[in-house]
Amino acid sequence: MTAVREHWGSRMGFIMASAGSAVGLGNVWKFPYMAGSNGGGAFLIIYLGCVLFFGLSLVMAELAIGRTTQLNPVGAFRKLAGRSWSVVGGLGVATAFIILSFYVVVAGWTLAYVVFMAADTFGGLNVDQNTTIFTQFVSSPVQPLVYAAVFTVAMIGVVLGGVASGIERASKWLMPLLFVLLVVLAIRSVTLPGAGAGIAFYLMPDWSQVTAGTWGGAVSQAFFSLSLGMGAMLTYGSYMSNEQNLPRDASMVVGLDTLVALLAGLVILPAVFSAGLEPGAGAGLTFMTLPAVFAEMPAGTIFGIAFFVLLAIAALTSAVSLLEVVVSYFVDEKGFSRTIAASGAGLVIFMIGIPVSLSQGVWSDVTIAGKSFLDFADFMTSSVMMPIGGLFIALFVGWFMGPRAVEALKSHPEQSMPLAGLWLFILRFVAPLGIAWILIQGFFG
């Protein structure tokens, strides 16, 4: 066990780092296409409700566990409830590790697209031609791995710096840059000819488009965009000081994460409508459809480069938090140095990412349960492991800790907690039902 626990250097550093943990490809890449595929405005309203009444409570629960114990996920549950509950923490560490094995691959694609946009690769091409370029790129046995390696090195480099000097310092630079790029791109998008139709689609709800899948998708998106159930918030909470106002700071983190998702929608959907393309294009909206939008836009190359830089920053801040989950486990539980833990874990993650990348091309005929390595890893983490982890965290804090959890939120004994009863009610009943829905949707949806 480490003798001295690192802590965040400042409240703002914690907020920027935690918001960076939550902000990732799920916000900038996934949220816009989920909104586009589920009716726009109605999905947005349901999503915001899920974040407010569901996501915030779980963020507070993870942060409370981390700050109370000042330990990694495994050690935190063991300290509060004994060795049997430490399995929940172990699940979080394993989830973070597996996610990173394919996350570094997809994040490498974002770096590649920065280069492609700078080289004007998509100039004059339509969506079908862009799709061919994307397919050829991800099918290559070497090129995607080079970009994945570059991303992995950057991720390891930030974590090697430690909590205050590495993660916090990088977040203080990267997160403001991310917001500036988002605002600039959103302004450009909403001022394009014909963008009004996309704005109306995104902000004006059409309840006739709402289905059970819309509700399930909104719950799932709220859950995953906040990095819940994988130990990231718990780990970052373990570096908090007892003097920090946890409910206030958690609300700031959730608010910033949600703002990024909302701005990402304003970047992508008005631009897609302006170009006369289909907003429900699904996961291909970013890598196959958007290059065609930028190609038709005045100064499109510049804005295209800015967008994929934005996407890479979002991926990096989120990946750093996932690697920190793994590193904190090996430092706390196994006594490894940060250098060995970060470098070793990063190397193993990249090695596992090799077959994940090859599964998009030369190993495309190799499947697990009918899925490619990437799709299977994504399914197991997002549809099984994360929801199960989140379910146990909600039940643990809501029922096992109960009133003790309310005390864990306080920065001083006299602090008033007027909504504590509502918070526990959500953790005991609302969150488990929402997470159960995610599990059912994942297996049978």
Residues in helix, %: over 70%
Profile the largest sheet: none
**In the CATH scheme, what's the topology name?**
Amino acid/polyamine transporter I
Low-confidence stretches: none
The N- to C-terminal Cα distance equals 43 Å
Number of domains: 1
Structural class: mainly alpha
CATH architecture: Up-down Bundle
Tally of contiguous helical segments: 18
**What series of H and E elements makes up the topology?**
HHHHHHHHHHHHHHHHHH
The CATH first-level class comes to Mainly Alpha
Average of pLDDT: 92
Q: What's the β-strand tally?
A: 0
Radius of gyration (Å):
21 Å
- Fraction in beta strands: under 5%
- The dominant shape is globular
Notable characteristics:
445 residues, mainly alpha, Amino acid/polyamine transporter I, 0% strand, symport, transport
Any overview of this molecule?
This protein is mainly α and 445 residues long. It has a single domain (11-444), classed as Amino acid/polyamine transporter I (Up-down Bundle). It is 77% helix and 0% strand. The protein is built from 18 helices and no strands. The chain has helices at 11-22, 25-37, 41-69, 73-81, 86-118, 127-139, 143-160, 163-190, 195-203, 212-225, 232-237, 246-274, 284-296, 300-334, 338-358, 373-401, 403-409, 420-444. Helix 1 (11-22) packs across helix 14 (300-334), helix 7 packs across helix 8 and helix 9 packs antiparallel against helix 12. It is globular and about 60 Å long. The termini are far apart.
